[in-house]
Amino acid sequence: MRLKTVFTVNYIYSYLFGAGFIFFPTLCSSLVGFNAAGDSYLIARCMGIFVICTGVLSFFARDSERSVARRAIVLCLFTLFVLLFLYKISLNFFYGIPLQSSCWPVIYVLHLGFIVSYGYFLFGKPREIERAACQSRSDCDLISSGWSSPRVCLQHKRDT
Hints:
Blueprint: H1 3-23, H2 25-31, H3 40-61, H4 68-94, H5 104-124, E1 142-144, E2 151-153
Antiparallel strand pairs: 1-2
Helix pairs in contact: 1-2, 1-3, 2-3, 4-5
C-alpha cells in the first residue's frame, strides 16, 4: 500500500460526499438519519464544504515529497478520522440516530479504513512520509544563515 493511493481514495471520497452535502443537503442528511427540517440544510452545506476542503488537502498532498509537512498532513487526517469516528459513535449511542440507516455502515467502513491506513503510515511505516537520510552533499536540503556562514543540512544540522 502506498500513501499516494490512500490520499487519492481520500480525495475522491471527500469530493463525492462533500458535493452531495452541498448540492443535495436534504437528501444526504436524511440518508444518514438526520431530521432535515428547518435550516439544517445550511449546516449540511457547511459540512460539505469542510469535507471538500479535506479532499483538496489530500489532492495536493498526494504528490508532495517526503517531509515534515507531509507527516503533519497525515497526522492531521488521522486525528480527523479518529475524532469523526468517535463523534459518529456518540451520535448513534447518545442521541438515538439509528445505526441501521442506509449510509452509516458505509461511512463506518470508510472511516475505519482511513484510520487504519493513516495509522499504518504514521506509526508502522514512517519512511513513506519522512525524508530518507542524506548520503551526499547533493541529497541534503541546504540552508545558509547568512552571507558568510557555512551551509548546513536542515535534517541533520551538520556542516556540509
